[in-house]
Structures are given as C-alpha cells and as structure tokens.
Amino acid sequence: MPEISRFYGIIISMYYDDHNPPHFHVRYGEYSAVIGIQDFALLEGTLPPKALGLVSEWAALNKTGLLQNWELAKNNEILNKISPLM
Q: DSSP for 43-76?
C-alpha cells in the first residue's frame, strides 16, 4: 500500500486497483480508517476526533491531488506524494 503523505503521526495511503467510491486509507497509532475523497466521509474504521479533523482539513486542501492519485492507482501507475499538513 503506497504511502502518499505523513503528518503528525498520521499515515495516508492508497491501494492499487481498489474498489469504488474513490477513497484513501488512514493509519494513526492503533486506529485505521477509510475516508471518501468526494465528501471526506468516514467510510470504515475509526479515528480520534482530532485526527479525523486533521485528515479532513488535509483532504480538503488536496482533493485534486487525491483524485489524480486515485486515477493513477486504478491504472497501476506510480502515485504522487502529497505535501503534509503543516
């Protein structure tokens, strides 16, 4: 699972050839979640509220890059790194 960003102990990644809807995976300590790219909804798993807020903020700032990576992943191409939340 390629890592596309990392900040504040949060790891963001995508799987190649993953199922719809477009989404990304989040790991934070013992927590894991799947977040939709279109509306940043929590699709699976759990995250502490503060971590979920940081991920949502980061995703909103990087929606275009996330959608581009989703298309790259569907085509088994190398994913682009996305800047972390500062």
A: EEEE--HHHHHHHHHHHHHTHHHHHHHHHHHHTT
The whole-angstrom separation of Cα 40 and Cα 30 is 21
Domain, as residue range, for 22: 3-74
35, 41 in Cβ contact below 8 A?
yes
Distance separating alpha carbons of residues 60 and 37, to the nearest angstrom: 9
The residue-averaged pLDDT of 30-59 equals 97
Q: What are 23-35's pLDDT values in tens digits? A: 999 999 999 999 9
pTM: 0.94
In a domain, 27, yes or no: yes
For residue 85, being part of any structural domain is answered with no
Q: What total number of domains does the chain contain?
A: 1
